[in-house]
Design brief:
This protein has 190 residues and is an alpha+beta fold. It contains ten helices and eight strands. It holds the Pfam family cNMP_binding.
């Protein structure tokens, strides 16, 4: 739990009381590789903190093809936030891409605590601003303005994540076919 609290405190320092309450609603869970954590169409009920492993956040198109939107590595928070906020079924699934250990905490309880603990609300605001606005905005712009080759190079530069992904996951994330990915890799000699 120490790294979990440390990551939260990196956004906004929590009081000792808030830390104890948050620990009290949190539990640890293991997921095997390829295990579904949240299935598209289900209501998201938890937030997750990745202690170890790698999670994929994806949807499935009409042809049955997986389209990865994001990957969550160690020390990151993962959830179908829009499902939680709106109280609607998730448009995305979350899958363990490796054997993974997570800390999970119930969204409904957490959201009630936000209204009772100002420090927890400030954490949530800082987290959402950094990860769902500042970090995500360039990804959305790049998807519209960069070529698949440019996006591949950007992903390739994140060696820690890149080396953990399979080729079909990379192709899916880039929005291209495995054949197109092979051409890009050949052209770049990577």
């Amino acid at each position: 739990m120490d790294e979990f609290i440390s990551q939260i405190n990196s956004y906004h320092q929590l009081s000792p009381l808030t830390i104890e309450i948050l620990k009290g609603i949190s539990s640890e869970k293991s997921f095997k590789k390829n295990e579904i954590i949240l299935r598209e169409g289900d209501l998201a009920r938890y937030y997750y903190f990745v202690k170890s492993g790698l999670l994929g956040y994806y949807t499935i198109d009409e042809g049955g093809k997986i389209i990865y939107k994001l990957f969550f590595e160690e020390n990151s928070f993962c959830a179908s936030v829009s499902s939680i906020i709106q109280g609607i079924p998730s448009h995305f699934s979350i899958r363990a891409l490796e054997d993974s250990e997570v800390i999970m905490y119930p969204a409904e309880t957490f959201r009630k605590l936000i209204s009772e603990h100002h420090d927890l609300a400030l954490f949530q605001i800082a987290y959402l601003e950094k990860n769902w606005v500042v970090k995500k905005e360039p990804l959305e712009i790049n998807l519209k303005s960069e070529t698949a080759k440019q996006r591949y190079i950007t992903l390739y530069q994140n060696e820690k994540l890149f080396d953990r992904l399979k080729q079909h996951e990379i192709a899916s994330y880039l929005g291209i076919t495995p054949t197109q990915l092979s051409r890009i890799r050949k052209e770049l000699n990577l």
